[in-house]
């Protein structure tokens, strides 16, 4: 087989993200601890997020709005001003949070960029994702950056046609089974799952175990060898 | 001269947008009328928006967060829950608002698409702009869609290189002097200002009067003739 193009997810694949969301979740739960236990608060927030996804899409701004809405629902008579102020501050802090790349990312991407066309494919708020890419120092390694509103098979077909030589010669690597692996395989690409320590509830899905174009790796450091091994089989 | 590519702004160029923001502004002022007169409230909201632009970027979600923050500042002791709920509802309604194309847009774009490559170039929330384009029914007329976090000269150079034959053979048309006209001209493209009935305060700028690649039109219906007349001069 020939691989010309490597698609890479950003959040929780190249740099920490969900941990920052979890920290904010923790702060949110503490803020509302008089109005419910952790499970109740988390469940309600997840429900509000799911309900709003169709309108807000992905990213910190929608998450902040969903936190405010959840607080309004959980507090008798609505959330007091200090709670809303705290949530606004938490959202702004997330948007200004330093970007910390995951172990081995810098050197692995540098190695991959010598052999393949790298395309960053990510969901989230446009400006926030651009900021994080700039702050990561990885921007120059990518031939293209696609910030998309949804990652379905059509997205991967379009992106790999536009920036590569089609899905059949592309590998997608990321931490989300639901967004990075399954739709990329459906589009005809290869897909590698690189789990992060935690996964957002909305990104969970079953692995396509045994699929010939699927792989799973503990670390991105093993990605170049994984691709090379498959190329050698051809 | 040769023109191969026509860039088009979306909000207030192809469909109504600022009027919907103004309606929401009105609703916001009414909501806070015990806490200040219209001018004070509007001035404070503009200040908060400007302060947040660096973190939130453009679009309805950031605007909603800025309204909540402004309400917190204007109300003694912070905004009461019913105000916050109203603002959240107003934001959601903006995101679900029907898309109404401006007069002559449909037939003009259809005519332009027969002769030029059309590229939609817009700021705002990713999902919201995609939703509006889909709802407008204009999506198939565009060879490419670029939802960007900022419209500066680098943006236009990149977009017209990627989707056309470079800035020198491209026309950008839009309602914002600051975002659509000035940076496009700086990038070496032609630019046509088509004013909308109202302009967001952050988009105001002086016209490049007398510039050889600049024009202004009352209606998008005159754009094909404007381009054709310049092409004839070559």
In N-to-C order, the SSE pattern of chain A is: EHHHHHEHEHEHEEH
CATH topology-level name of the largest domain in chain A: Rossmann fold
What order do the strands of the largest sheet of chain A run in, or round the barrel if closed? Answer: 3-2-1-4-5-6
Number of helices of chain A: 9
CATH class category of the largest domain in chain A: Alpha Beta
CATH superfamily of the largest domain in chain A: HAD superfamily/HAD-like
What this model shows, in words?
By secondary structure, the first copy, chain A, is of the alpha/beta class. Chain A has 2 domains: 146 residues, 3-Layer(aba) Sandwich (Rossmann fold); 78 residues, Putative phosphatase, domain 2 (DNA polymerase, domain 1), CATH 1.10.150.240. The first copy, chain A, has a 6-stranded parallel sheet with strand order 3-2-1-4-5-6, sandwiched between helices. Chain A is elongated. Chain A starts with a strand and ends with a helix. In chain A, 44% of the residues are buried. The interface between A and B is medium-sized, with 35 and 35 residues.
List keywords for this structure.
homodimer; 234 residues; alpha/beta; Rossmann fold; DNA polymerase, domain 1; 2 domains; six-stranded parallel sheet; 6 strands
Summarize the structure.
The structure is a homodimer of 234-residue chains. The first copy, chain A, is α/β, with parallel strands linked by helices and 234 residues long.
């Amino acid at each position: 087989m020939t691989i010309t193009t490597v698609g890479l997810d950003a959040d929780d694949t190249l740099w920490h993200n969900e941990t920052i969301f979890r920290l904010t979740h923790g702060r949110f739960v503490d803020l509302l601890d008089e109005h419910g236990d952790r499970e109740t608060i988390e469940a309600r927030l997840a429900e509000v997020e799911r309900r709003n996804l169709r309108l807000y899409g992905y990213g910190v701004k929608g998450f902040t709005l969903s936190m405010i809405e959840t607080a309004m629902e959980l507090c008798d008579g609505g959330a007091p001003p200090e709670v809303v102020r705290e949530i606004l501050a938490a959202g702004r802090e997330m948007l200004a949070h330093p970007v910390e790349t995951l172990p081995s990312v810098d050197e692995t991407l540098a190695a991959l960029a010598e052999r393949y066309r790298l395309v960053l494919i990510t969901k989230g708020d446009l400006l926030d994702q651009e900021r994080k890419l700039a702050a990561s120092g990885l921007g120059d390694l990518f031939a293209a950056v696609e910030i998309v509103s949804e990652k379905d098979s059509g997205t991967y077909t379009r992106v790999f046609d536009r920036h590569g030589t089609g899905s059949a010669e592309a590998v997608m690597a990321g931490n989300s089974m639901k967004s990075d692996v399954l739709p990329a395989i459906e589009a005809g690409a290869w897909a590698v799952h690189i789990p992060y320590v935690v996964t957002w509830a909305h990104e969970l899905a079953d692995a396509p175990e045994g699929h010939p174009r699927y792989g799973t790796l503990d670390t991105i450091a093993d990605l170049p060898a994984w691709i090379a091994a498959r190329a050698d089989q051809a």
